[in-house]
Amino acid sequence: MATGPKEVLFAGFAAVVVAMAIVYFFPVRCRLSRTEGFENQQIVKCPNAAQGAKAFMDKKGNLSCCMGQVNGDRCEGTVFCTFSGNNPGVTLCSQFAKQPRK
After folding, report:
1. In this predicted model, what pLDDT tens digit does every residue of 30-41 receive, in sequence order?
2. Helices and strands (H and E) in the chain: how many
3. Beta strand segments in the chain, E
4. Taking the model in full, what pTM does it have?
């Protein structure tokens, strides 16, 4: 236990050094990140085969392309393709990107 002024000063100095070390070393993961979160997002665009199609997200969270009017989370036309693998019966939009262009 600190009894004299020198011991109190030393304990205070040590506490400050420990606090500075914690502040410096704790957020290492944040300091190493050089990009902002929105830079990793991809812009979704329906394939060229779906001229005029609009991307929309349905109630289940599937991202798809609608040939027609989009009303919130519904396609009031035909669902042309999907970016989500869990939408049975709808072609994946990536299949259109693999086809040779005419």
Report:
1. 555 555 555 555
2. 3, 5
3. 54-57, 63-67, 70-71, 74-75, 78-82
4. 0.52
Count Cα atoms within 13 angstroms, Cβ side, for 28. 4
CB 71 within 8 A of CB 77: no
In 3D space, the residue among 37, 36, 73 whose CA is nearest the CA of residue 54 turns out to be: 73
Whose structure tokens read 């502040």?
A: 23
Instruction: Give the model confidence (pLDDT) of 60-81 as tens digits.
Output: 888 899 998 999 889 999 988 8
Count of structural domains within the chain: 2
Same domain, 19 and 46: no
Range of the domain at 68: 42-98
Does one domain contain both 12 and 33? yes
* Residues facing 64 on adjacent strands: 56, 82
